[in-house]
Amino acid sequence: MKKDFAVIGLGRFGGSICKELSDKGMHVLAIDSDEAKVNEYKNIAYHSVVLDATDEDALKEIGITNFDHVIVAIGENIQASILTAVILTDLDIKRITVKAQNDYHDKILNRIGVHHVVHPERDMGKRLAHSFISNNILEY
Ligand code: ATP
User: Fold this and answer.
1) CA of 73 to the centre of ligand 1 (A)
2) Which of 76, 115, 79, 77 is nearest to 98 (CA)?
């Protein structure tokens, strides 16, 4: 079943999510405030748009409430990430995933009611460490 995703922030993390979902045949709307980033994903995502995600009216205008899952991958600008998350939770988006920069950011996102908070670098480090251990066990 095809699902509609919106990815906000097309850095390495958001960009890779956008590409992978698109490769798997999902409908993805790629969003970034930087036009050059959006142009990079023009031929990858189903739709792409230049937009400041902290602008609630702009999000409503593109019909953000119709998406099954919205992923916020705004990294360094924690304030923009939090404000975007508040807007999305207020709009009752079905599924919201947000990338957290640190524990404080994580705590606030959870308080706001974000469904899924992720720490890509930390999670990947853990997964790799576990895989190193199981590889070692197999080698002995
Ligand atoms: P990564 O590690 O995934 O490359 P990062 O953690 O360094 O990313 P940034 O590069 O700071 O994150 O942000 C990711 C993207 O989010 C950038 O392309 C940036 O233009 C975009 N972005 C930042 N603020 C907004 C905003 N208010 N609305 C839409 N996009 C935004």
Assistant:
1) 6
2) 115
Q: Ligand 1, closest atom to CA 13?
A: 3
Please give the structure tokens belonging to residue 137.
Answer: 């066990």
pLDDT band at 140; cut points 50, 70, 90: low
CB atoms within 10 A of CB 49: 14
Q: And the tokens for 88?
A: 């999305």
Complex ipTM more than 0.85, yes or no:
yes
- Spatial CA neighbour of 98 closest among 79, 72, 122: 72
- Does pLDDT of 25 surpass 70? yes
Q: How far is CA 93 from CA 43, 131, 135, in A?
A: 26, 35, 40
Nearest residue (by CA) to ligand 1, atom 20, is 34
